Amino acid sequence: MELTFIRHGQGEHTMNLPDSLQMNSPALTHKGRIQAKRLNPEIPITSKDALIASPTLRTLQTAAIWSENMDCRKFVSPLAGPRIFPYRLDAATLPCDELLDLKRFKEEFPDFIPVPSLAVSLWSTGINVKTEDEFNLLAEEFIGFCRSLQCEKIYIVTHDGTITSYRQKISGQPLTRADFLKEAEWVRLILK
Description:
By secondary structure, this protein is α/β, with parallel strands linked by helices.
């Protein structure tokens, strides 16, 4: 099984740092929308594939623009939500990384199905500041869900820290913030 982790396009929360990190539910910028459109020819998604997005506005917008007019299975999961990397005991979730509530998500992105059988609390708490041990258990659950889809290719639109956390977990190799992907970049990992 092939997992492709894709970082969302440029978000409004990156335009006036550090103040812009205090934005709630930042959307894609014009540049971010262009980056999302460019994903389709670079990474063509088909009806045989599955797409999972983080429940933030910018990731759902990236996924929706990229997969527009594609009949693939589309999911949203808090296990693909923002994650601080590396984990810090004193970390707190910034307003820009808070998850969309389920009502808003369902209204604005009706083509995306919430991943079933997750603890309801994750829809409010997310994985952003979970300890490494907690994250590793949740990552196993997420990988198990991916396996249950029985697709050769699964695309996950998410965030730089989340991608790096999953890359480190799956590869077993230590990574740093220097390994973060840039906007709309991706990395493929093979799960056996």
